[in-house]
Amino acid sequence: MIVVRAYPRLHVGLVDLGNATSRRYGGAGFMLDCLPVEVTIEAGSHAVRGLALLDRRSQADVMEAIKRQRRAFPVKPTRISIRCVPPQHIGLGSKTALILAVLKACALSSQLQISSKHLQMLSGRGGTSGVGIHGFFKGGFVIDAGHRSDLGTHFAPSAFQRGFEIPPLLSRITVPAGWRFALILPKGRRYSGAREMKFFRENTPVPKFEVKETMAILHHGIAPAVLEDDISTLRIALREMHRCGFKRRELRGQAPPVRRLFDKLEKIPDCAVGLSSMGPLLYVVMKEPTEEVLDGLAAIVQKEGASLLGVCAGRNRGYEVLG
């Protein structure tokens, strides 16, 4: 039996959803060392167990990816079991991690030499953001360069993209060892399917000056903060990020409890706060937090009726294989 574990990500934000450059989308995010997807595979008749852990659309996406791989490569009959998956549609990128874990497990079981890029293409993921598909293999803080602007005429979520290239990996930075990420789930809106598509249609294109401001914040604020282990700069940069561009619209599109908790978390000293993807997941980045700080954070979360999913380090490695 082969076991493949893949890890979730936090998505800091998308960049160009306003045709301000020759590329569209592009984004950045942190890989996390917690809440893994776990897939097992062993010889047997073609079967997939554990699909009940997923919603219908995710079930269909997993099966389509498996079919694409079987059409392209001589995959041996195997029994795949999905053991665990983080909560879906909250901002952790669980579907991307799961699909790539399944495809990698199948490749290992059949002793197939499939490149990372080919697995990425087979996954059908990465139509908007490349953070999850690069982070699966490399870990760390990932920045991707988006897609050529001539590959589409409108802005849409990854699930609605067709015929795209994998967004190039622009930068991969090691997450500082002392950083901890508190993952907080308030009662908010979960975007997927038609609801997510509607949001994109109603909130794009973003004004070009906001796109360029977002790029400046990412490349001259957030990325250097990670590189230099500087929570103070990260705090300022993330605050600015959530006040412009598509990220401002994502936060504004969330339910009042999410926005209210976000405002309260921003007041905690020496912490950086963000909304992952479209939410509702919020994250707080801290440097070597004390028990007192963590207890105070937990008290705020509890008072607001939210759930603390955990506190973890960043993950500077990709997927892992056991067995």
**What's the end-to-end separation, in Å?**
6 Å
How would you describe the shape? globular
Q: Order of strands across the biggest sheet?
A: 5-6-4-1-14
Mean pLDDT: 95
Number of beta-strand segments: 14
Specify the helix fraction band.
Answer: 25-40%
Strand content: 15-25%
- Uncertain spans: none
Number of helices: 10
Radius of gyration: 19 Å
What pattern of helices and strands is seen along the backbone?
EEEEEHEHHHEEEEHHHHHEEHEE
Biggest sheet statistics: 5 strands, mixed
State the secondary-structure class: alpha+beta
What attributes characterize this protein structure?
five-stranded antiparallel β-sheet, 10 helices, alpha+beta, 323 residues, 14 strands, globular
Word description of this protein:
38% of the residues lie in helices and 24% in strands. It is built from ten helices and 14 strands. Strands 5-6-4-1-14 form a five-stranded mixed β-sheet. Helix 1 packs parallel to helix 2, helix 2 (94-109) crosses helix 3 (116-123) and helix 6 runs antiparallel to helix 7. The model has no long low-confidence stretch (mean pLDDT 95).
Topology:
Blueprint: E1 2-6, E2 9-16, E3 23-31, E4 37-43, E5 47-49, H1 56-72, E6 78-84, H2 94-109, H3 116-123, H4 131-138, E7 141-144, E8 147-148, E9 169-173, E10 179-185, H5 193-203, H6 208-227, H7 231-241, H8 245-252, H9 256-266, E11 271-275, E12 282-287, H10 291-303, E13 307-312, E14 320-322
Parallel strand pairs: 5-6
Antiparallel strand pairs: 1-4, 1-14, 2-3, 3-7, 3-8, 4-6, 7-9, 10-12, 10-13, 11-12
Helix pairs in contact: 1-2, 2-3, 6-7
